[in-house]
Fold this sequence. Notes:
CATH class of the largest domain: Mainly Beta
Strand order of the largest sheet: 1-15-14-13-12
Distance between the termini: 26 Å
Largest sheet: 5 strands, mixed
CATH topology of the largest domain: Beta-galactosidase, Chain A, domain 5
Radius of gyration: 19 Å
CATH architecture of the largest domain: Distorted Sandwich
Shape: globular
Structural class: mainly beta
Number of helices: 1
Number of domains: 2
Helix content: under 10%
Amino acid sequence: xxxxxxxxxxxxxxxxxxxxxxxxxAFGKMPDGQGVDVYTLKSPQVExxxxxxxxxxxxxxxxxxxxxxxxxxxxxxxxxxWLKDKTYNGAVVGRYGNRIALGQFKIDGQTYQVPTNDGxxxxxxxxxxxxKKLWTAKQVPNGVELTLISPDGDMGFPGKLTAQVTYTLKGxxxxxxYRMTTDKATVVNLTNHTYFNLTGGTEDVLGHQIxxxxxxxxxxxxxxxxxxxxxxxxxxxxxxRTAQTTTRPPQRP
Length: 253
């Protein structure tokens, strides 16, 4: 089993010992000439990098049990490669992470339409989601705070939405906090879309161990829209209540 002692905490977490260092550097330019910056967060145990394009986490370096340091996140070395990526890797996805059936939702009796970009559905906020936007950033203690203002009607969503995402690193705890404000009733569901390989890329992910302390899961339709049911994991490939070694991709029930 591969173990790299990195605690990645989404929304909540415990601040551990050792204060971090934060530096800023230019990473390249967008096609329209706007500059993209990368912020490097360092502690004695971990180094993480975040860029302003898509508020993306682009690197996490940490040591394994033998002390060997490697980047445990999948990614690219240059901005042009990141601009071509279609997997949402490392990005903050929104306004609405995951799928909206037929790209439609209703608030207070009014139906809103988001452009579809995943078969019949809208995925991760539509064709031009938050992952494709240039965020503004400022250094904060032990981290970086990124801000994006999404205007009323952006990708069909109602309300002017201000999103703030803060990455902080203390000791071996990398924490991501999300804060959103809006001037109109809307839907919002932000998350981070990082892909990991705990071997540091020396092997594939087969052989990793997965442990998920969940008794139920949400089954989906053929187009990956939740059915609304909460099914028990017992007796299905979705049962990870005890650690399971990945020898092949889990099959959908």
